[in-house]
């Protein structure tokens, strides 16, 4: 009987090169940031104008945007410098404002655990409110096996960085020539409203937002913008209190369920 040689199955197709995958992830992250340029650009222009008004030289203003790259902190820093606030108040306010980045980093840490330290340092520099909000779902997707998701975050971060540098330079060049009727000041609250509101989902979130909003009005007369610090602490404490209260109620309900496994009411 004639026999035929055993045929081995064809080898699986070679995996695509890493380069295109990296480029695709980077381009997607960069592209997702483009719609936010409309709100970030006026924000950067305002900073450029405020930086000159508080006494910074043009090169210092641009260098701060390049090195610090933290819009809200830069705005508050200029306001405090203009108010001749003590350095302790300045440092405290900036530190409190940037505490949220610890939470951002912690939530992304599991997805970035395998990266070398230098990669983590680069991504930490580019991690902003907008970059975090637009890439969180992509970075924490458990069903996505891609090894290049960090390039997505890098693309979003560098996209925002480029917008911020151009906007800062525009504000510096225009200086006080920006017409008041443009209403660029309104771009700051609009930008943060667009970031914060979609993430308000629980009662604790609402408690933190409402409490901090009331506190910043109540303490508005405090010098050196201390109302921001007071409102931050008030909002955090309100959110923490309501979260702990909800957890206590949940624990009590679970304990009651264990003590009464039948589910019937105890008379």
What can you tell me about this protein's structure?
With 267 residues, this protein is mostly helical. The protein has two domains: 20-178 and 185-199, no CATH class; 201-257. 68% of the residues lie in helices and 0% in strands. Helix 2 crosses helix 10 and helix 5 (87-97) runs parallel beside helix 12. The longest helix is centred in the C-terminal third of the chain and has 34 residues, at 226-259.
Number of strand elements: 0
H/E element order? HHHHHHHHHHHH
Radius of gyration: 25 Å
Give the end-to-end Cα distance, rounded to a whole number of Å.
Answer: 86 Å
Question: Structural class given helices, strands, pairing?
Answer: mainly alpha
Number of helices: 12
Total tally of structural domains: 2
Shape summary: globular
Range of strand content: under 5%
Low-pLDDT segments: 1-5, 10-20
Average pLDDT figure: 82
Helix content: 55-70%
Please outline the major beta sheet. none
């Amino acid at each position: 009987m004639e026999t035929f040689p055993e045929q081995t199955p064809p080898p699986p197709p070679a995996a695509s090169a890493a380069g295109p995958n990296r480029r695709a992830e980077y381009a997607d992250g960069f592209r997702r940031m483009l719609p936010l340029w409309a709100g970030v650009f006026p924000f950067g222009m305002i900073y450029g104008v405020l930086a000159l008004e508080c006494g910074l030289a043009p090169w210092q203003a641009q260098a701060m945007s390049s090195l610090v790259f933290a819009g809200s902190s830069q705005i508050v820093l200029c306001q405090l410098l203009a108010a001749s606030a003590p350095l302790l108040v300045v440092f405290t306010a900036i530190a409190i404002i940037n505490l949220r980045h610890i939470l951002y980093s912690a939530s992304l840490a599991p997805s970035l655990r395998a990266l070398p330290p230098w990669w983590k340092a680069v991504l930490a520099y580019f991690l902003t409110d907008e970059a975090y909000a637009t890439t969180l779902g992509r970075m924490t997707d458990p069903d996505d096996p891609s090894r290049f998701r960090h390039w997505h975050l890098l693309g979003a971060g560098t996209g925002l960085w480029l917008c911020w540098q151009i906007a800062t330079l525009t504000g510096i060049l225009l200086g006080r020539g920006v017409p008041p009727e443009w209403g660029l000041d309104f771009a700051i609250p609009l930008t943060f409203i667009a970031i914060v509101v979609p993430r308000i989902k629980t009662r604790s979130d609402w408690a933190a937002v409402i409490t901090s909003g009331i506190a910043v009005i109540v303490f508005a007369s405090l010098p050196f913008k201390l109302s921001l610090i007071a409102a931050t602490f008030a909002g955090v404490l309100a959110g923490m209190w309501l979260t702990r209260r909800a957890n206590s109620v949940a624990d009590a309900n679970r304990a009651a369920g264990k003590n009464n496994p039948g589910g019937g009411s105890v008379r």
